[in-house]
Write a structure and sequence with these properties.
The protein is mostly helical and 494 residues long. It contains 23 helices and four strands. The protein has a two-stranded antiparallel sheet with strand order 1-2. It has a two-stranded antiparallel sheet with strand order 3-4.
């Protein structure tokens, strides 16, 4: 407003002057990045007359299944509450608040008794639910079709075939330079890497989210990854963001939630036992405890098939005006949830920035891995894509495993639900997550899962039980992600 009163500002050229100002001040880029970020997150517009639940999930039977699943999770949480006689939330006594504040950076040393707490659910419980999904309008008749009866997922969703995936992931082609490939014949790796780093520095200097997203499709140089991901996710860690994180922290200090124990338990069961991630235990508690209090996370429920669970103030059960979302972010953690955060600790050492990156990754991608929907990046589509790829391209292997009671999805499901976190070596996992960000899609998880089976096919053809198949695929830590993906997508005969 002050600028408008300056004598050099003329009303007739106001529009052009504002454009110039936006350019020279750097605000034009910031606005472009903010718009690009919104376009990446929100679904494409529906028909104006479409009801709001269609924006969340167009298929009624998926909405119904998700609703039933939510009730089951809530029942599990409430029964734990009743059994242990612990309230869902309570204010911490002053001495406890002080103690927690003092040990905020070393919460891992604290050993609360968690023996009575159990995860609300584990991935295998969720898989059982997905296996029972059916479309009531889809009559199979007497003759079951080939596709319907071989896999565990029995819903007719459209998934891509290899030619479509090749087109979508064409930057992973055999003749295109990639980070994570050591012996590309066309370009010596060190030459490609030097050039790629140089381009990456230019992209960062431009501060353009769209360019950064395109760039990471060929992988991120380690030194630039943290800044490039932040640019793609439009995270800038301004003073107001740091203040917001501090407010969440003070909410953690003041109030004790039942889900805090689930978070503690999950970190203890997963990341604390992981050779790569145990050192980040304190960071994980900080980020996840703050995340559970963050009401801004509720916004993602406008485009998620899920609905945040509600709790009622004591003695006011069923009275809507006394209902509150519980936990405040609407997300009940499950077994393995902390592994969504763990790999990010390698990139961000400043808690508020680590927090924002994780929150953005969650509301863009990770929520889709534990909710029932028909979205192409949703876990149901990923399972179906995985099974279809295997059935089509490795039919003998698929049939053999099915015959011995080792349905491939029973093995790969846990990899996909955790976006392979905790299964791949960290450098390989980050190369995979580069591509998730680059393509704004989780479909690559299903492709990689199928590629792992293809890679171990010879050994798998010899197994005679589920346990033996699991043993063959128990350790993925030596796998190189990019060659596996390239060979599966571009060297498979279609």
């Amino acid at each position: 407003m002050v600028s408008l009163h300056k004598p050099e500002i003329k009303l007739e050229s106001l529009k052009e002057d504002i454009k110039d100002f936006l350019k020279t001040s750097g605000w034009e880029k910031k606005l472009q990045n903010a718009v690009y970020s919104e376009l990446n997150v929100f679904p494409s517009p529906c028909h104006p007359a479409a009801p709001s639940e269609h924006i969340k999930e167009p298929l009624a039977y998926m909405r119904k299944a998700q609703g039933s699943w939510e009730k089951r999770i809530l029942k599990s949480l409430n029964s734990m509450c009743t059994e242990l006689n612990i309230p869902l939330a309570q204010k911490r006594p002053a001495n406890e608040q002080k103690e927690l504040l003092n040990k905020w950076n070393e919460m891992g040393t604290d050993e609360p008794d968690l023996s009575l707490f159990r995860p609300v659910y584990a991935p295998k419980d969720f898989l059982e639910v997905l296996m029972n999904l059916r479309n009531p309008n889809y009559e199979n008749g007497e003759q079951p079709s080939f596709r319907n009866h071989l896999g565990l997922i029995q819903v007719p969703l459209k998934v891509k075939d290899i030619p479509e995936l090749k087109e979508d992931f064409n930057e992973l082609g055999l003749n295109i330079g990639q980070l994570g490939i050591d012996d590309s014949a066309q370009v010596p790796p060190e030459f490609f890497e030097n050039e790629h780093v140089h381009v990456g520095q230019k992209v960062l200097a431009e501060q353009d989210s769209a360019a950064a997203q395109q760039y990471v499709r060929q992988g991120c140089p380690t030194a630039l990854r943290a800044d490039l991901w932040a640019l793609i996710l439009n995270v800038s860690n301004q003073p107001e963001d740091i203040l917001y994180y501090e407010q969440l922290k003070s909410n953690v200090i003041q109030h004790d939630l039942l889900v805090d124990n689930l978070i503690y338990k999950d970190v203890k069961l997963t990341a604390s036992n992981d050779d790569y991630y145990f050192v980040f235990e304190d960071y994980l508690y900080q980020v996840l405890l703050c995340f559970s209090r963050d009401t801004s996370v509720l916004e993602h429920f406008t485009y998620s098939s899920a609905t945040p669970p509600k709790s009622y103030i004591q003695g006011k059960l069923g009275m809507e005006e006394y209902a509150v979302f519980y936990p405040p972010n609407g997300v009940i953690p499950f077994h393995g949830f902390s592994m969504y955060v763990a790999p990010l600790c390698f990139l961000y050492h400043e808690p508020s920035k680590l927090y924002q990156i994780f929150r953005e990754m969650y509301v863009r991608f990770f929520f889709r891995l534990h909710s029932i929907s028909s979205h192409p990046s949703g876990i149901v589509s990923l399972c179906l894509l995985f099974e279809t790829l295997l059935q089509t391209h490795l039919p003998q292997l698929f049939y053999h495993l099915r015959e011995i009671g080792a349905q491939p999805l029973r093995i790969s499901f846990k990899w996909m639900v955790r976006a392979f976190s905790g299964y791949l070596a960290t450098d390989q996992l980050l190369l995979l997550w580069d591509r998730i960000l680059g393509y704004n899609s989780l479909e690559i998880l299903a492709v990689l899962a199928a590629a792992v089976f293809a890679f171990r096919a010879v050994n798998l053809m010899e197994v005679t039980s589920l346990a033996a198949a699991e043993a063959v695929l128990a350790d993925l830590s030596t796998l190189k992600v990019m060659p596996l993906l390239q060979i599966f997508l571009f060297a498979t005969v279609t």
